[in-house]
Amino acid sequence: MRILRSYILRLHLVPFLLGFGVVTFILEMDVLFDYLDLVVNRGVAVGVVTQLFLLSLGYIVALSAPCAVLIAVLMTFGRLSQDNEIIALRASGVNLGSILLGPLAASLILAVGLTLFNNHVLPESNHAFANLLIDIGRMRPTVRLQEGVFITDFPGYNLLVQSVNGRTNEMHGVTIYKVNPGGPPTTIIAKRGTLSYTPDGRTAVLRLRDGEIHEIPPEEGGSRRYRRMVFTTHVIYIAGAGGLLEHTVRDARGDREMSARALIDERTKLRAEFDQALERRRERLRMAGAPRDAIEALAPERLPFARRIAGLLGGLVTREDPLERYYASRPELATEAEMWRMERDALRRRDASLSVEIHKKFALPVACVVFVLLGAPLGMRVRRAGPAVAFVSIAFFLFYYLCLVGGEELANRLLLPPWLSMWLPNLTLGGWGVAATARACDLSKRRAPEMPRHATRAAA
After folding, report:
1. What is the pLDDT of residues 121-152, one digit of tens each?
2. Are residues 83 and 11 in the same domain?
3. Bridge pairing between strands 157-165 and 170-178
4. 173 phi and psi, to 5 degrees?
5. How far apart are CA 395 and CA 393, in angstroms?
6. How far apart are CA 241 and CA 291, in angstroms?
7. Whole-prediction pTM value?
8. Which domain holds residue 426?
9. Which of 182, 210, 239 is the last residue of a domain?
10. Do 45 and 82 belong together in one domain?
11. Do 19 and 129 share a domain, yes or no?
């Protein structure tokens, strides 16, 4: 039995590596042309772009590994079924569940490795990727500019560029709208210009040539006159525009740049902040003599499940929220009610976003085990390891990926609990896989039909 399990595991190796490479390449195709554009049109060094490409592989690897497991299992058991080795094993009295122990153990080891990767390697690679983008923006400022699209990254200015030469940082067809509080914007048009930053990297410098300035300056007495100025050279300094392009390593990290431990700590702080804000609101309502149901309506998600259901049914019948009813009787508190609603939604969405990233770090690795349970019985039915395997692999992985992306969006919109949104694909496909595997193992216990002659030789 040990020799048989080792044989089946060896059959998984080549399809796994092949599937991993193909899936990684397909997923990277989305950004590959962007990297080529950085080299060809923007003048960024090949070594820097290569480093950027390698750092971007972190999240792709986390997705490619489970899909490669599914491809390997389908191809391996499809080959065994095609060569009638499955029939030979059943006729020899071998329980198919026992030959699955090897792939399941290997997938479990891979899942543990991916979990460590998601918690330690992936956050650092994402952080290094973000910092490298900052460095590229510092070296080549126009890399961040998109032709024909308004750029709103500069405080107080909206920038539109018709064409950009990334190698010389020269822009053509420049249109700038300077925002003037309380008045119409100032329009600046130039045939060409360059973008650079001061040595400290915090102030953007726009040097424009051959252009015009159109504005309506404020005048005393309420009268305004349209003014048009023609310039040969015009320099604009935008303070604070380089804040997004710090050359030094950032201390702040995004959600995907933190480990699960750091995300949990961040979520704990956020929930403490929510509790403090909620307690302040409750204290104000108590002092104002608000009824109990209005105070509880400040955070209905904190109520016990039975009371939440009762409150929901009561709201459907009366079509009235206790908190809304109370604030309606106190018009002077209407603004405060709206502010609390916005603050509560923002804190809850942030909490959901952190929870999604925490569960995602563990849900994706578990998919390796799920795909073994799902792929083995399906592979036994697929007798030709060709287009059928590719179609089945793509179909299931596409379903898994869509569930993952859709679940993340539903969780961020507070329509599903974060844990359910991230684990639902595993629960759905895992339940199906366990049932299919159990059915296949049960069939292996039954007496197999008479084997073909070449299958008998395989059994011998």
Report:
1. 999 888 888 878 767 666 555 555 667 777 77
2. yes
3. antiparallel
4. 65, 60
5. 5
6. 49
7. 0.69
8. 2-138+355-459
9. 239
10. yes
11. yes
